[in-house]
Amino acid sequence: MMMNPYYLTKNSFLPLFTSLSLLSLAMMTLAMLWKIEMNTFLIPLILIIPFIYWFLELERETNYLGLMLNKENNFILFAFMLFILSEIMFFMSFFWSYFHFSFSPDIELGNSWPPMGIEPIPFFETPLLNTVVLLSSGVSITWAHHMFYYKKTKLNMIILVLMTIILGVYFSILQLEEYQSSSFSINDSCFGSNFFIATGFHGIHIIVGSMLLFSVFIKFLVGMNPTMYQTHFETAAWYWHFVDVVWLFLYLCIYWWGH
Asked: Which residue ranges does the record assign to the Heme-copper oxidase subunit III family profile domain (predicted)?
């Protein structure tokens, strides 16, 4: 099976290790929901380790072994497009759930949306600022991507990527403060559950996107000049645009319309 030009994988312990880490993360989440006390500090760290190792292995194959040619790069880009498509379906389930409950509120919710007793977060305060911050980061990463594609000044690309990372971190800080000041929690009816799950998963995607862009920033900083055929910066920029678009729908549907 391995003796053909289309077999790109090799024997590795990482898939099994990652699967066990994800299982541990799911068990940790269930324990938190059921308020079971357990030491869960190392589980997220164990989950991060295989992804870092996997990323370093991909970098080694690309930059030092020369295994990633045009054909392999096209495969990676296509696989990443399928990944983003699956992420779109993932977030669509949250929007489906939100509109299902909002269009036909139950009598236990007071036949109203938002439910009686819940004061939604004003859409013109922190959410609006978050929207401006994220759209600004989309502009900066688009500008950096344009410079990257046409091989413009490297220093300007570094500054723009760093600016995008800073805006992403600022967005995460603002969202954390929004959660802390919220008058409702994830346990407060289907409104709270849908709100925190949808915006929380988007926040996780922002953190992942910031980490991807930080790896691009490090590559630029150490002098590894990627060509237009490399996929690293391309996929990171695609991912950031994806979280930008998802946030716009979250702001319009949950913050503005839901208010």
From this structure: 2-259
